[in-house]
Amino acid sequence: MLVKSCRMSLLALAVTMLLSALPAFKANAGEALNAAASDPTAMGWMTGFPPSPDKLITQPDSNYFSFPKLRWSVCHLREFLPTEVISRGIGAPVPLKRLEPEALKAIGKEIDALTFMPMNSETEMTWEQSLNANYTDGMLILHKGQVVYERYFGCLKEDGKHAAMSMTKSVTGLLAEIMVAEGTLDETQLVSELIPEMGNSAFGSATVRQVMDMTTGVKYSEDYADPNADIWLYSRAASPLPKPKDYKGPNGYFQYLQQVKPEGQHGAEFHYKTINSDMLGWIISRVSGKAVTTLASERLWRQMGAEQDAYQTVDGLGVPFAGGGLTAGMRDLGRIGLLMLNAGTLNGQRLFPASVVEKIRKGGDRSKFGEGFPTLAGGSYTSQWWVFHNKHRAFAARGVHGQTIYVDPTAEMVLVRFASFPKAQNGLIDPTSLPAYQAVAEYLMSR
């Protein structure tokens, strides 16, 4: 029972947070409760003083990310794990521009009624049906810098925060790209030149750019059915919970990264492996002398007029989880999206060079992207951002269970979605979501 409990704890900590946008497979949500039935309010999670035993969601149970509990937990991560704040500072927030209430209501009805054809389907779906199908917790749409649509569901309220999952990677990548553009980080340098401790790790001979684009040749398996998979050692190392007395493995993200072995050739192919993001977090922290949370506060949250502090989970040594630990407000991620849409400017101020966004929009080497992401065919990955190379030149931050910041430069649209889909893989949600995003973009362009 102790082994099972330990394994469940590691699973809750790592499995659902380290993955993002995995390849689609033929499964679906199966027999899971639908969005209405699994709504946290309908389920009654953590209600009462104290809650009844069957309504408790607690860390010792180590299953707080199992469905349907995850629909409550995505808004309450800091109640399970230690975190570090990403401060917005003490200045007043800069409100997002928005349509007048009546106009907002009217356009909302029109968007809800939009129809589109999901991938590999012969049955049309409405926008509102897609929100329910994808277990949406929050949806924000900005067009030409104005909020034109905003709704909250499930555990998320207007003043709430939600787990961003692997959208965290895109914030880490953005910070790195800013440092490259400003000349404080050399993307051609070897990791071992910046962090000598990495000389014996497979990462040591990779360039910073290869880490940023996840084209490193490093051994790392996330096969949860294999008890010897690397994910379990990584999870044990990263866990903020006390280590067992007989534990002899690495302690924390940084120690784990130092013992990663080589597999394949650096620069040959894109392989989505979360450890690249934590390696990148260490690189930018070592070069800047600041934690990724401090950098995100100074370069983004404090400058963009954020409404809320964000927070980020940390390992047992206080190192922020650069690959998936962010929790933030939906409007503040909308501000990140606006910065990406407007090439680094917001509220009439430039926060970082336009070349940062130009580089990301261009995308990575499409020949290295492979065939592992069928719903993103023809896409690429660079600086921890997904680039679709579609007719609207869209690109996105993405995280498991349906998180996204979707930027459509052609439609001048930014879309932020928080969700708690029963299964982690975004490949299961894309067939509904991506055509829906295209439909609303075309609608906004026609107005």
How is this structure best summarized?
The chain has helices spanning 2-18, 40-43, 70-73, 101-113, 127-133, 167-181, 191-194, 208-212, 230-238, 252-257, 275-288, 292-301, 330-341, 354-362, 430-446; strands at 83-86, 97-98, 115-116, 125-126, 136-143, 146-152, 162-165, 310-313, 326-328, 345-346, 349-350, 380-382, 385-387, 395-399, 403-408, 413-419.
Structure, described:
The protein has 447 residues and is of the alpha+beta class. It contains 15 helices and 16 strands. The strands form four sheets. The protein has an eight-stranded mixed sheet with strand order 2-6-5-16-15-14-13-12, sandwiched between helices. Helix 1 packs across helix 9 (230-238) and helix 6 crosses helix 14. The longest helix has 17 residues, at 2-18. The termini are far apart.
> What is the average per-residue confidence, as pLDDT, rounded to a whole number?
92
From the alpha-carbon coordinates, what is the Rg to the nearest angstrom? 21 Å
Cα-to-Cα separation, first versus last residue? 60 Å
Shape verdict: globular
| Strand line-up across the major sheet | 2-6-5-16-15-14-13-12
Instruction: Give the proportion of residues in helices.
Output: 25-40%
Assess the beta-strand content as a share of residues.
Answer: 5-15%
**Largest β sheet strand count, sense and barrel closure:** 8 strands, mixed
Q: Could you tell me the number of beta strands?
A: 16
- Uncertain residue ranges: 1-30
Secondary structural class: alpha+beta
Number of helices: 15
